[in-house]
Amino acid sequence: MLKEILSVTGRPGLFKLISQGKNMLIVESLIDGKRIPAYTKDKVVSLGDIAIFTEDAEVPLGEVLEKVKAKENGGKCSIEPKADNDTLRKYMSEVLPEYDRDRVYPSDIRKLVAWYNILINAKITDFVEETKEETAVVE
User: Fold this and answer.
1) Which of 4, 61, 97, 132 has the fewest CB atoms within 10 Å, counting from its CB?
2) Taking the chain (139 residues) in consecutive chunks of 10 residues, what is each chunk's mean pLDDT?
């Protein structure tokens, strides 16, 4: 699900991929539902391609969002994205205790909280794709 959700540099909020053209993408804002073009000059990143640094590896953003959802019982974040840096760091250590404090900045945590709230408001709550295990049938 997160592969279709995009962040476009220079534009606030998150966008859902609607269509692709030759030199642009048509995206729809998750905040107000307006459709806009995102051109090749715009930096567009899929949330499915983002990961959070930890002490020993990188954790996909979907897994981190699932941990936030579990902490908040599926509701909106208990802190505001504009909270002070110490509050943000404390919140992040509750959600992902092993996050890398040197490489994950307060601005990254602000984005995480803001994006989580946008996704919850847009009723997007499945952050990790279920992988179906195939069972071999022996005849």
Assistant:
1) 132
2) 89 93 92 92 93 93 94 91 94 94 94 94 84 50
H-helix or E-strand spanning residue 121: helix 106-121
pLDDT value at position 95?
Answer: 94
Structure tokens at 9: 């540099």
> CATH no. for residue 15?
2.30.30.730
pTM score over 0.85: yes
Alpha carbon separation from 15 to 12, 43, 79 (Å, rounded): 9, 13, 23
CA 82 to chain centre: 17
Strands (E), the chain: 5-8, 15-20, 24-29, 35-39, 44-46, 51-53, 58-60
CB 96 within 8 A of CB 113: no
